[in-house]
Amino acid sequence: MASTLCSLTWAGLGKRRRVRICLTAPDRLLDRTEGWPAGVQLLRLALPRDVGEPELEFSGSREEVSNYLQETLFSRFNRQTQEFLCLLAYLEEPSPELVEAILPGQKGAERLAQIRKQNLFINEVSEGSNVYRFHSLFRDFLLARAEAIAPIAKRDVCARASRFFEARGDTVRTIWYAVRSGEQDRALELLERYAETSLVAHGRIRLFTQWVRLLLDDGAELSASVSYWYRWCLVFTGRWEAAAELKHAGSDQRAAIIDAVIGAFSDDQIRMRSAVERWRHVAGDADPFSHAVMFSASAINKMAAGSFRVARAEISKAELSIRQTEGGFGRTWVNVLIVLSEIGCGNIDEALRAAERAVDEANKSLLPKAPAARMARMASAVARYWRGDDAGATDDLACANTERDDHSLPILTLWASAIARELGVYWERRRFEEYPPSVAIDLVAEALALEGQMKSAPNIRRMAERIAEFEAKCGAAAAISNDAGHYDWGLSDQRAILAIRLAVAQGDLSAAAAMISPAINRCQKAGRGLTEMRLSLLRSVVLFRQDKYPAALRCLLQQAEKAVEDGVFRPFIELRHLLQPMLHDLFEAGERSALGNDRQGWLHFCALLDASRPVAVSDAQVKPIGGLEKEFNITGREIEILGFLDLGLSNVEIGRRMGVSLPTVKWHLSNLYSKLNVKNRASAVRFARDNGFA
């Protein structure tokens, strides 16, 4: 029974739907009965006796339930009351005013009150609302009977209800009842008006898709505008394959937009690039939202190619365009892209601020389960993870972890999924995680899995074999497609990090050092600040193991400054076990550098690296040299500089810490070298250490 799945059907909004739920959650099945004792008993009798029975249909139209309601309740009413109840069932939430509007001159409100007094499975939606709803099982039953008792009345009832809500400015119910009324022309006109003015602002994508599907089932022919927005909604609900199969309808502008959106969600970067290039020729007087979509598509294309700095410039254009609209949906999307670009650039604090804006915008203007709202949560989780905020990332992942058919940018979901695995958060795998939409996404997913294994003290020999197999797979992909290396979502960086970490683990420091510098240069040119930091920390590890301690510490201190300034702490956390021998000196150097002035950020950094407490020293405090200052007539200022040399700081950094100019630092160094009879800083440090300095 534990592995058996059942399906639950109900007549919702005039159409039967089926939801598969697990029998191990009986409370969800019992919700269908709404506490009705007879319903609970009927449900018990309906449960499958055989574990192998795959599905259970349980609704008011099920034979056992229908017969029970017919014999014990419905049959005791006269024909007029039966018809009245069936007409009410066509309405989602009948009210006295609505009933009077659809049944003029028939004392509908009075009859509704009488039925309410008889407690015929009808209750107020909320206390004092004067709006009612039937018990779901009873409504199922009534709708099934209505097809036989009053089939033609449905269209008239829904048409009148549509106009009733239109007069009250309730757009959603106006369209919903218009679609069900069979007035196709009016429904299409309302849909077109709604799509152009409200769809982007409110993000009711699934609802719009449902409306259109009902019209298509009814044989309607969609207008060019409705067809365009329908395809747009299909993509945003994860059905980009279905959207791609439909023919373009309307202008070349909208054809380019659809291709760009399909390319984004299917990770077809070539299609998206082509769409952006076509757009530049047909943009003309397009509306601000369309411009924002295409600038965003261009940014995604650039990020996939690893050019985060260029991508950020494109997103800025999208941000300016979207400000001219009233669409919270669009603003949420642009903020999500800002998060991704800022993370790539290594500006985590900026990314987190954009994530907070995206979540706030989604909460204000979107439905709780809108795809963009979930995507905002995933973006926030990724930003918090790189800042080292595991608790915040876990909370955001829990909010974003919803149905399997939920959709977002594939790369964002992959990152969220990898973070969930690392933090031990349950994550519902999406369909495209099992069937990747592109070679790049498939390879990135595998690279993320290998990175996760590298973090958990792996078997080095086995990891070498797995990485070799992965490299062969990457090589085969590159041989098939010339564009595989241009749109890889940072796969080349991931491969470099894997290879470097493996070389370090194997003790091949020369090979690791040879790989690090070219990789850092590539990251600097493209603005990939996050990867640059990860590579720089690996460089510190390699330098330390090559006995180049001053250079290793200098590199480490530089990255610590960036970490505190930009909030990017995760690289230090993930490499802490390799950096451990240098952390004590890092804390000392940080205290007497500019890092110590930013107390909040510095203390947070120390806490994340499990420092019991930062060493409390001032800028003027350095390691003692014993009697050297007397023997060689070294001044206090020169002693201070010698301490900074031991930490591996450059002349510029020494000047900044001491608050003096660069020529002054050089003058002090020249005097120090002369007094110690040495030629350079390395010799000065070695001399000091040999004489008890270190």
Give a description of the structure:
- With 694 residues, the protein is mainly alpha-helical.
- Among the domains are: 63 residues, no CATH class; 77 residues, Arc Repressor Mutant, subunit A, CATH 1.10.10.
- Helix content is 68%, strand content 3%.
- The protein contains 37 helices and four strands.
- The strands form two sheets. It has a two-stranded antiparallel ribbon. A two-stranded antiparallel ribbon has the order 3-4.
- The longest helix has 21 residues.
Which descriptors apply to this entry?
694 residues; Arc Repressor Mutant, subunit A; two-stranded antiparallel ribbon; two-stranded antiparallel sheet; elongated
Write the layout of secondary structure elements.
Layout: E1 5-12, E2 15-22, H1 26-33, H2 37-46, H3 63-72, H4 79-89, H5 96-102, H6 108-117, E3 122-124, E4 132-134, H7 136-149, H8 153-167, H9 171-181, H10 184-202, H11 205-217, H12 224-236, H13 240-245, H14 252-266, H15 269-282, H16 288-304, H17 308-322, H18 328-345, H19 348-365, H20 371-386, H21 390-400, H22 410-423, H23 431-434, H24 439-454, H25 460-480, H26 491-506, H27 509-526, H28 529-545, H29 549-566, H30 570-574, H31 576-591, H32 599-608, H33 628-631, H34 636-646, H35 651-658, H36 662-676, H37 681-690
Antiparallel strand pairs: 1-2, 3-4
